[in-house]
Design a protein that fits this description.
The protein is mainly alpha-helical. It is built from twelve helices and three strands. Strands 1-2-3 form a three-stranded antiparallel beta sheet. It is an enzyme of class 3 (hydrolase). Homodimer.
């Protein structure tokens, strides 16, 4: 029977063929594919959370660089919105599914049983870690090549004016670029317990800029953020 490390080497080699990138440092890819649940079961293995941190920054830089150069007359606010729309969990999961990264992850037994190979957060985090691993192994240009191969069509869709979906993230990015504070507050609840409608307001600084309603607080916050972006003239 093959040892654990031998099985991991075979798994890594198969995944390299999928992504068409041959790592000089195989350990980087091993770490990128290792979830904390696996590392906790096998104490001698590192896991991918530190790489996720770096991958998020590399992804943001590549997308910023691309849209900055392709849309030379677009103002800062619009660039910020497009970047926020692209650099998100949804986009990362699209990459993850195209390369079937869930199949190659090293997960703990409990995580595997509970569906970890298809869990959105795990797939997105592992994809960020993979981006960081490619960056550390091959440099910025290799990471850029990988990211744009999978995301260029998505970026161009947003550049062509498609609807921005993650309104809370977009509003956060816009507010941060203006050095302002952002806060949400529940201002109303209507209806019976089984069919409540929640009403949230969002304030930028001390000014209420958006009101939203939804079947839960999270949905109401998104609608409030969308309303605020319209008031600020960031979306139509």
């Amino acid at each position: 029977m093959a040892s654990l490390k031998e099985s991991m080497r075979k798994n890594i080699a198969k995944f390299e063929q999928v992504i068409q990138y041959d790592f000089k440092d195989k350990e980087l890819l091993q770490i990128a594919l290792t979830h904390s649940s696996f590392a906790n079961e096998h104490k001698c293995f590192k896991y991918n959370e530190r790489l996720e941190f770096l991958g998020d920054s590399v992804l943001g830089l590549v997308v910023s660089d691309y849209i900055f150069n392709i849309k030379k007359n677009l103002p800062e606010g619009k660039l910020t919105i497009i970047r926020a729309s692209v650099v998100c969990e949804e986009s990362l999961c699209k990459i993850a599914k195209r390369i079937d990264i869930g199949k190659y992850l090293f997960l703990g037994k409990g995580e595997k049983i509970s569906g970890g190979r298809t869990r959105t957060s795990i797939l997105a985090d592992a994809t960020e870690a993979l981006i960081a691993a490619i960056y550390l192994d091959g440099g910025y240009e290799k990471a850029k090549e990988f990211i744009l191969f999978y995301l260029k069509d998505i970026i161009n869709t947003y550049l062509d004016g498609d609807v921005f979906r993650d309104y809370k993230t977009i509003l956060q990015e816009v507010v941060q670029s203006q050095n302002s504070n952002l806060s949400y507050k529940l201002v109303g609840e209507d209806g019976p317990d089984h069919n409540k409608v929640f009403k949230m307001q969002v304030k930028v600084g001390n000014e209420v800029l958006g009101i939203g309603q939804g079947k839960n607080k999270k949905e109401a916050e998104k609608e409030a953020a969308k309303d605020a972006l319209k008031v600020m003239g960031e979306i139509k």
